[in-house]
Amino acid sequence: MTRSIPFSVVTKPTGAACNLDCQYCFFLSKELLYDAAAQTMSEQTLERYVEAFLESSPDGEVTMLWQGGEPTLRGLPFFERLIELCERYRRPTQQVRHALQTNGTLVTDEWARFFADHNFLVGVSIDGPAPLHDAYRLNRGGRGTHAMVVRGWEALTRAGVETNILCTVNAANEDHGEEVYRYFRDDLGARYLQFIPIVERVRAADLAQAERGWRSGTSALLYRQDGDCVTSRSTSPASYGRFLCEVFDQWLAADVGEVFIQDVDSTLSAMFGSATVCVHAPQCGANMAMEFNGDVYACDHWVEPDWLVGSIDSSSFAQLASSDKMREFARLKPGLDDECRACPHLRLCWGGCPKDRFVRRGESTHNYLCEGYRVFYAHATPALRAMGMLIAAGRSASDIMDPAVSSSLGLTHTTSTRNNQ
Predict the structure, then answer these.
(1) Is the pLDDT reported for residue 421 higher than 80?
(2) Among residues 336, 350, 353, 297, which one has the least CA distance to residue 7?
(3) pLDDT at residue number 57
(4) DSSP annotation string for 242-294
(5) Which residues are known to be catalytic?
(6) Phi-psi bin for 310: left (phi > 0), alpha (psi -120 to 50), beta?
């Protein structure tokens, strides 16, 4: 079996099931895809998945990605079984790692010890301080969840688990980039951050229904990448750009080499010709999503009937990754018009994710977030180029925080604000 096809798989052991009711979470609606009372992965499907994934993966380090819904709902014994199966099916030349995204509310000391013992990278979803987080991240009773998430985060910290934070940028926190960054850095002690824009795309006819949320119990609307409207919870392009600029300025002033931000890291990598995230890669189509029953979709953002690729019950991952459906999906990305190709930031952006390309301009569609991307790239790239020069000269990128160094490279130095709280 050839293992030359690169791929990754976001695996959902509980499907769309979640113990929370985050108002902007479109994935809650994916319960409508299946007529099953309990959308949970069986141990038989788990074993088939582990065997198939490792068989089609290369030698060296291999990472399994676990998301939801809320994956910890599947229970600790399920993940203990996962570890056993990985040891059974991995080749001697493979080292298996796991990355799990969680809302953190169910993480106990027992869970945290398990994650630490088995070297899980655990991402925790949190949108900032309590007033910002609790605007949309609610439990099923309509109450904020911030205290529960922080409790889980603290359990992970005590156990020494490798962690990062995934923060959505939405209508509630988009004007608070500096506050959000400082909270993560100073209050939570986080060192690895991702900022994901909320863009709830919807048809005009469905907008009122979408505003009520996506849980299938209150809405029979299946989220699809369709329509040219967005909900009131979505970030605005301009605000998203300003948010990233505020975060960047805080980081540049005091935290280069100490805090790592995906948007910054991916931009710096792209400046040197290496795309590290699919959103800003020249082409996508290698990041599949697997549902609880073994169905595989083209992407985590396109779990909908038109983009069902196949099933692990009948195909290997190598076959799925090289299928006609995945090749068709990959062709969505390069379709850029002349205006986009003439953009000075093209090689940093590549048009963004196809899911967000729904703004009509004449005969073309552009990315909803384009304005925000332009603002951020124009703001950040001078300093990032200067850091590249330092690295090329054999120096540390963190030297950029020295006012004399930044001035010598033509930058206006941003005064550190770490101690000016």
Answers:
(1) no
(2) 297
(3) 96
(4) HHHHHHHHHHHHHTTTTSEEHHHHHHHHHHTT---SGGGSS----EEEE-TTS
(5) 300
(6) left
